[in-house]
Amino acid sequence: MRNVSRASIAVALVAVGLLASGRADAQPRRGRRYDHGGPPVVGAGEHCGGFIRNAPVCAEGLVCQLNISCPDCGGTCVPSTPDAGPPVVGLGEHCGGFILNAPVCQEPLVCQLNPTCPDCGGTCVAPECQADTDCTGILPQLCQVCADGSTQCAHFECINHKCETVVCPP
C-alpha cells in the first residue's frame, strides 16, 4: 500500500468539496437541505429527480414534473395538485410514455406511440376508425380455413382505432 500523507488526503477532500467547514465529516455546501440524511430537498422551480445517485427530491407540497423527452434527466419541482390525474392533451401533442402521470389524449383522439421507442410515448392523432364499418378500401381476394374450422375471407376490422385487413381471428 502506498504511503499517503494526511495533507494530501485533506487536499483531495477539499478538491471534491467535502471540507466546506474545515472538517472531514462536513456535508457539502450546495444550498440544499440535507436534513433527513438522504438526497437533497429542493424547492419550487429547482431541478429534481433523474437517473443519478442521490437525485434531488422536491420539498413537501411539490412534485417533480419530469422532462417528457428525457425522464432519466429529471425535471422541475412544481406545486402538487391533489387527485388531478394525468394531464389531458389535444391533437398533435405529446402523450403516453413510461413516466408517472403520462399525458392522455382527449376523446376521441388516440395516442399513436413511437414505434421505435414505445416507452417514449407518442402523439395524439385522430382515430382511423371507431368500428369495423368505418374501414373501407380494396381487400385482397383471399379466403382460408381458420383454426376453429370455419372458412373466412379477408375483411376489415377496427383494431386499436386502426383499420386492419384480417382473414381469420387471432
Structural description of this entry:
The chain is mainly beta and 170 residues long. The protein has one helix spanning 6-15; strands spanning 41-42, 47-48, 57-58, 62-66, 75-79, 88-89, 94-95, 104-105, 110-113, 122-125, 143-145, 151-153, 155-159, 162-166. The strands form six sheets. The protein has a three-stranded antiparallel sheet, with no helix packed on it. Strand 11 (143-145) and strand 12 (151-153) form a beta hairpin. The protein is elongated and about 70 Å long. It starts with 5 loop residues before the first helix and ends with a strand.
Output the radius of gyration: 28 Å
**Total E-strand runs:** 14
Percent helix range: under 10%
Sheet/helix structural class? mainly beta
Span of the ends, CA to CA? 67 Å
Strand order of the largest sheet: 2-5-4
Number of H- or I-type helical stretches:
1
- Kindly report the oligomeric state of this protein: single chain
Question: Major β-sheet, in short?
Answer: 3 strands, antiparallel
Q: State mean pLDDT (0 to 100 scale).
A: 78
Strand content: 25-35%
Element order: H for helix, E for strand: HEEEEEEEEEEEEEE
Low-confidence stretches: 7-31
